């Protein structure tokens, strides 16, 4: 006769019915928690979209009060953006062709400068710098939310996350700049904040003349967002 090991009497494994009951309970718990988790993530994504909307509104007011130009740099590779400040006057182009022509003219002028002229030219440049410690200047999006793309007239299209660079080295970060001016005018900007699929998210639009900021709970095509504007760069008499 075999004796059961000490301490093993009265022990038994789970029956098949008990295992099935436990699995059923876990499935019910999972079904309850997953929508809640999705709702929490959706709330976080909405909060970050609201934060970006409020940031542009704050920059609009601060630019007027301090007579400075703010530049928001969107790093589409690192999924971050930060705020920089420069002097009241800043050169911004209405289309890519104007910027390309200006860069070519500048290169020709710089090539003809002597050492003294070049030093004066560099001293007169107006770099953008980070704000003081009293302002939050660097921002990251929550998990599962991404900078899908940014449009401004100087790019003439929606520059999208993950796209191939037209200029510069492939290892350079893909950064898009937008501007807020002390005159109360902002550069017209359309921003996509997307989920992991890239098919759903928020559209944030900064209106150029008033500086007002609108947030929409869907992804609008950049040319759809600007339908109300007759011309991005109207000809002035």
Topology:
Blueprint: H1 16-66, E1 69-75, E2 80-86, H2 96-111, H3 115-123, E3 129-130, E4 138-140, E5 146-152, E6 157-160, E7 175-180, E8 189-194, E9 201-206, E10 213-216, H4 222-225
Antiparallel strand pairs: 1-2, 1-7, 2-3, 2-4, 5-6, 5-8, 8-9, 9-10
Please explain how this structure is put together.
This protein has helices spanning 16-66, 96-111, 115-123, 222-225, and strands spanning 69-75, 80-86, 129-130, 138-140, 146-152, 157-160, 175-180, 189-194, 201-206, 213-216. The longest helix has 51 residues, at 16-66. Helices cover 34% and strands 22% of the residues. The protein folds into two domains: 16-90 and 128-225, minor pseudopilin epsh domain (minor pseudopilin epsh fold, 3-Layer(bab) Sandwich), CATH 3.55.40.10; 91-125. It is elongated and about 90 Å long. It has 237 residues and is an alpha+beta fold. A hairpin with a 4-residue loop joins strand 5 (146-152) and strand 6 (157-160). Strands 1, 2, 3, 4 and 7 form a five-stranded antiparallel sheet that branches. Strands 6-5-8-9-10 form a five-stranded antiparallel sheet.
Instruction: Kindly state the number of beta strands.
Output: 10
Number of helical elements: 4
Task: Give unreliable regions as ranges.
Answer: 34-39, 228-237
Judging by the overall fold, what is the CATH architecture of the largest domain? Answer: 3-Layer(bab) Sandwich
Instruction: Determine the fraction of residues in helical runs and give it as a percent range.
Output: 25-40%
| Biggest beta-sheet profile | 5 strands, antiparallel
Query: What average pLDDT do the residues reach?
Result: 75
Q: What global shape is seen?
A: elongated
